[in-house]
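Task: sequence in, structure out. Protein: HTH tetR-type domain-containing protein.
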Amino acid sequence: MGEKLMNEQKRSRTQRDIILALAEILQTTTFEQITVQAICEVALVTRSTFYRYFEDKYAAAEALIEYLGMRDLMDPVDGLVLERVQRFVSRNEAIIRHLNPSNQQRANFHVEFLRMVERAMTLFYEANQTVECDPIIQMLKQATQPELMIKFLAGGVTSMIIDSQHRDETQQAQAINFIVEIINQLADRGESNHDD
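Result:
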């Protein structure tokens, strides 16, 4: 039993090392320029070890996006959903820029970002139903189909994440403020409809 746990921990560590090696390379290099060999060199693993964990570099990139989402969006930290997204974007700016579809010929990680944001919003909503000050929570509580509203919001937020690399910090803040404004308006409309 103890040996099985140790093997699982080693496996998990190796997988994380590969993912973090990819993240390190993405600080300076676009995804299409990255090779499996380069990831292996930074992770200090052989190619056969890499392929034991990932089918290809695209699968490793998807795992990296999931890892970053769990670390920066879904772990319990203070802040409203959009504040978490803003922190996620600023903390992972180079990685997002180098995974950005506009920098690629073949790779498009929009779907992975969308799934990550949807999952973060869903988990946040489920864990914070009693939070009164978050307009997203209030809007989702009023929605007849919260899961569809989450998909709608996640689409807008994901587009903002992908597009944020073409904007300066002021424009990023304006985009987030715009989304907050729209959410507040939708939440206010929902409340006034309930009052009628």
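Residues 58-195 form one domain.
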